[in-house]
Amino acid sequence: xxxxxxxxxxxxxxxxxxxxxxxxxxxxxxxxxxxxxxxxxxxxxxxxxxxxxxxxxxxxxxxxxxxxxxxxxxxxxxxxxxxxxxxxxxxxxxxxxxxxxxxxxxxxxxxxxxxxxxxxxxxxxxxxxxx
Length: 131
Fold this sequence. Notes:
Elements: E1 7-12, H1 15-26, E2 29-33, E3 39-43, E4 48-53, H2 54-60, E5 79-83, H3 86-95, E6 99-106, E7 112-117, E8 123-128
């Protein structure tokens, strides 16, 4: 059996705004946006990051789930973005409205990273690429 994880779907309040934020902040490439704006995808180089309108998903697919909002605790997961310019990428995220969780710092094992919350409150780890 040959399997691979190919997509992560997040449920948000405004799909179009979220797609634009990830395009502007991290240079993600838009793959699609449904005509009604309730579903969209970003191509992350062989991996798809999808966004669905959270109210629609609640009505059609799931009884309950933890909504991604800035007003609540973040979900128990994060998106990791690799960059060669940690400070610059961190500042760009803040300039585009991200909220700092942990500013850029070095972990005891040597990795450098920062944590922010995006416009939906999703945790995003910005990681400096190792040389």
